[in-house]
Write a structure and sequence with these properties.
The protein is mainly α. The protein has 26 helices and no strands.
C-alpha cells in the first residue's frame, strides 16, 4: 500500500505538471517537450525528499527548482563549447553526489541538479527557452508539493491503523507458515519461507514504530507506550515459533501443532474485545494436551494483541502526562571521524565521476549523439549502493531490464504511434508501474522506464527502432563503466562492508548491555530500552542488506560463512529484544543484591562483546568466565523461588541465550584482529 501510494503520487504529480505546463507553453509559443523537465522535477520531488520532519520536507520540495535551474543555465549556456560542457557535467555530477554528506536535504537537490543538466542533452534547448524551462521546473515542484502535502498527504493515524492491520496479517502469515512446516516437516523451502515470514514481521514492526513518531496527538510517553505494545506483539508471535517448531520435530507434534495453529487463527479473527478470552480458551485446550509452553505463548499473544488494538483504536484518549526531562548521560563512544577519501560521500563522488567520464568516452564510440544514456546508467547504478557487490547486482538488473524494455518499447511504439491519447496514457502507466515496483525490483523499474521511452519517442515524432537499440548498447556501456570503476577506483569490497556493519552492530550491542547494567545498578530500574533495541535492529538490517550480494548471488560453498554470521547476529538481536522486555519486570520484583548480580552479568557480557571487537582491556575468556560465574549464582537464586516461573526465570533464560550467542559470535568472527582477517 505504501508503494501504491507513492506511485499514485508520482503519476498524478506528472499528470498535473503536464496539464498545467503544456497549455502555458502552447500559449507562450514554446516547444511542448520542454514540459518534460517539469515532470522530471515532479518525480524527484515526490520520491527523493526524505527529511525527517514534515516541515523540512516541505522546504526541500520548494527548493528543488533552484539547483535544477542553475544546472539548466550552465548546460544551455555552455552547449556551444562541447569540451567545456562535458567538463562542467562532470563537475555537476561530483557535486551532486558529494553534497549528500551535509544531510538528507541535499540528496534530492543534488539529484535534480544532475537531472537538469542531463535533460539539456536529451532535448537540446536554446538559450531563449530558459525562462520556459524554469517555469516548468517550478510547476513540477509545486505539483509535487500539492500532491504530497495537500491532496494525498500522509495521515499518521491512518498509517498507524493500516500498520496495525498489517501486523495482524503478518502474524497470520507466520502461523500459516508454521502450519505448512508442520504438514511438511522435511521441506527446506517451507522452513525458509517461515524464516522469511519472521523477517517480514520484524520489518513491519519497525515500519509501524516509525509511524508512531509522527503522531502529534500523543506525547512522548504515550508514543513510548505504544512502541512497547508493538514490540510486545512482535515478540509474542516470534516466541511462538520455538515451542511450535519443537512440537513439529517431536513425534507427537503432528496432532498438536495443527490444532494449536487453527486455534490461534481463530483468535486472530475474533473481535478485539474477545481476543483475550479467546486466547485463554485456546491456551487451556492446548495445555490439556500437555503443551504448556505453547499455551503460555498463546496467552501472551492474546494479551499483547488486545493491548495493541486498544492502543491504536483509542490513541486520542491515550494521553499521558509529559515525562520529566531525562538526566544527562555519559556520551557513548563515537566512531572515529573519517577524513579525506575515507568519507563515503567523497569516495562515491570520485567513483561516480570516474565512471561517468569513462562512460562518456566509451558511449561516444557507440553513438556520438546519444552517449548520455551511458552516463545516466553509470550514475544511477552507483546510487544507493555501498559496495562493488551491490553495484554488480544493480548493473546486471539494469541491463536485463533494459533488454526486455527495448523489446517492449518497440512493440508498444509500433501499436500506438500517432495516437496522442494512447501515448500519454502509456507514458503515465509506465511511470506508475515503474515507481510502484521501484522498491521491489530494480530490473522491473528499468523495464517500464525503457518501455516508456518507446512511447515518448513516438509522441515526439522521433521514434526509430534503432534509437532503443542504441539505448540498449549505451546502457551496457554505462554498466560496464560502473563495474570497472567499482573494481579499480577506490573499491569497497562487499566483505569489508559486511565487517564494518557487523562492527556497528557489535558496538550497539555492547552499549545496550553496558548502559542497561549501569542503569540497573545505579537506579534499580530499566527504562527506555525500546530505542536502543530498534537501533540494534536497524544495524542488523544494514548487515543483512550489505551481505545480500554474498548470500544470494554466490555459490553455496562461498556464502556459508557469511550466512552463518548473519544467522548468529539475527539470533542475537532476537534474544536481546526478549531480554529487554523481561528485564523491565524483573527489576521491580527482585532485591538489590539480585539487581547487582544482573548488572554485573550485563557488564561482563558487554566486556565479552568488546573483546570480540578486539578493543577490550579484558580478554574474551576472562569476561565469559566472569559471566558464567555470575549466571550460576543467578540460577541458584531462581531455583530458590517458589510458585512457578517468574520474570526472573525468563530474564535468566534470555541471558543464557545471549551468552551463548556471544560465544557463537566469537567463534564466527574471532576474538583478535588476526583471526578476523583470516
Amino acid at each position: 500500500m505504501r508503494r501504491l501510494r507513492t506511485a499514485t503520487r508520482v503519476v498524478l504529480a506528472v499528470a498535473l505538471t503536464i496539464a498545467v505546463v503544456v497549455p502555458v507553453l502552447s500559449w507562450w509559443g514554446q516547444p511542448l517537450p520542454l514540459a518534460l523537465i517539469g515532470a522530471v522535477v515532479a518525480i524527484n520531488s515526490t520520491v527523493g525528499v526524505n527529511d525527517p520532519e514534515r516541515r523540512q520536507q516541505q522546504v526541500t520540495t520548494l527548493l528543488t527548482p533552484l539547483p535544477v535551474t542553475a544546472a539548466l543555465v550552465l548546460a544551455v549556456l555552455t552547449a556551444r563549447w562541447p569540451l567545456v560542457n562535458t567538463v562542467l557535467f562532470l563537475v555537476v555530477i561530483f557535486a551532486a553526489v558529494y553534497v549528500r554528506r551535509f544531510g538528507p536535504r541535499y540528496y534530492p537537490l543534488g539529484m535534480v541538479a544532475f537531472m537538469g543538466y542531463f535533460f539539456t542533452m536529451f532535448v537540446r534547448p536554446h538559450p531563449d527557452q530558459l525562462p520556459a524551462l524554469c517555469v516548468a521546473a517550478v510547476a513540477g515542484s509545486l505539483a509535487a508539493f500539492t500532491l504530497r502535502f495537500l491532496a494525498l498527504r500522509d495521515d499518521p493515524e491512518g498509517v498507524l491503523e493500516r500498520g496495525r492491520r498489517t501486523l495482524h496479517a503478518q502474524v497470520h502469515g507466520l502461523l500459516h507458515a508454521v502450519r505448512d512446516v508442520a504438514e511438511n516437516p522435511g521441506s527446506v523451502a517451507r522452513r525458509r519461507e517461515l524464516n522469511n515470514r519472521s523477517v517480514r514481521l520484524n520489518e513491519t514492526a519497525l515500519m509501524l514504530e516509525g509511524s508512531v513518531g509522527q503522531l502529534t496527538s500523543l506525547d512522548e510517553r504515550g508514543r513510548e507506550a505504544l512502541r512497547q505494545r508493538i514490540l510486545d506483539v512482535e515478540l509474542a508471535a516470534e516466541n511462538l515459533l520455538t515451542p511450535l517448531l519443537r512440537l513439529v520435530d517431536h513425534p507427537s507434534g503432528g496432532e498438536v501443532v495443527p490444532h494449536a495453529v487453527a486455534g490461534l487463527l481463530e483468535v486472530l479473527r475474533a473481535d478485539p474485545q474477545e481476543l483475550r478470552e479467546s486466547a485463554r480458551l485456546v491456551a487451556e485446550q492446548i495445555e490439556q494436551q500437555g503443551s504448556v509452553a505453547v499455551a503460555m505463548a498463546v496467552r501472551r499473544l492474546g494479551t499483547c494483541l488486545t493491548e495493541l488494538t486498544e492502543a491504536t483504536s483509542e490513541f486520542d484518549e491515550d494521553r499521558a502526562e509529559p515525562e520529566p526531562a531525562a538526566e544527562d548521560e555519559p556520551a557513548a563512544e563515537e566512531p572515529e571521524e573519517e577524513t579525506g577519501l575515507q568519507r563515503p560521500e567523497l569516495r562515491m563522488a570520485v567513483q561516480v565521476t570516474c565512471a561517468t567520464a569513462l562512460a562518456i568516452m566509451l558511449g561516444q564510440l557507440v553513438s556520438p549523439n546519444r552517449w548520455y544514456w551511458a552516463v545516466i546508467t553509470a550514475f544511477v547504478v552507483f546510487i544507493s549502493t555501498n559496495s562493488r557487490g551491490e553495484l554488480l547486482v544493480r548493473a546486471w538488473q539494469r541491463t536485463a531490464g533494459t533488454v526486455l524494455g527495448v523489446v517492449a518499447g518497440i512493440l508498444v511504439a509500433a501499436q500506438i504511434s500517432g495516437n496522442l491519447a494512447a501515448e500519454l496514457a502509456m507514458i503515465l502507466l509506465c511511470v506508475f508501474l515503474g515507481f510502484y515496483f521501484a522498491g521491489f525490483s530494480y530490473a522491473l523499474m528499468t523495464f517500464f522506464i525503457t518501455t516508456l521511452l518507446g512511447a515518448l519517442y513516438g509522441m515526439l515524432g522521433t521514434f526509430d527502432a534503432t534509437v532503443l537499440e542504441t539505448r540498449l548498447w549505451e546502457t551496457a556501456v554505462g554498466a560496464f563503466a560502473g563495474v570497472v570503476t567499482a573494481v579499480f577506483v577506490l573499491p569497497t569490497r562487499t566483505r569489508s562492508l559486511v565487517r564494518t556493519n557487523t562492527e556497528e552492530f557489535l558496538r550497539g550491542l555492547r552499549d545496550l548491555l553496558r548502559d542497561t547494567g549501569t542503569e540497573l545498578s545505579e537506579r534499580g530500574e530499566v527504562t527506555g530500552l525500546q530505542e536502543s533495541v530498534r537501533e540494534l535492529d536497524d544495524s542488523l538490517q544494514k548487515v543483512v542488506r550489505s551481505a545480500r550480494p554474498l548470500t544470494s548471488y554466490r555459490l553455496r560453498s562461498r556464502r556459508n560463512q557469511v550466512q552463518r554470521t548473519v544467522t548468529v547476529l539475527s539470533g542475537c538481536a532476537y534474544y536481546v529484544r526478549n531480554l529487554a522486555v523481561a528485564l523491565a519486570a524483573t527489576a521491580d520484583m527482585v532485591d538489590e543484591d539480585t539487581r547487582g548480580r544482573l548488572a554485573e552479568l550485563l557488564r561482563a557480557l558487554a566486556d565479552a562483546v568488546e573483546a570480540v571487537r578486539s578493543r577490550a582491556q579484558v580478554g574474551f575468556e576472562e569476561a565469559m568466565d566472569a559471566a558464567r560465574h555470575t549466571v550460576d549464582s543467578l540460577h541458584d537464586i531462581a531455583e530458590s523461588l517458589t510458585g512457578g516461573p517468574t520474570s526472573l526465570h525468563r530474564t535468566i533464560r534470555w541471558l543464557d541465550r545471549t551468552s551463548q550467542v556471544v560465544e557463537d559470535l566469537a567463534r564466527e568472527l574471532g576474538t583478535t584482529g588476526e583471526q578476523r582477517a583470516a
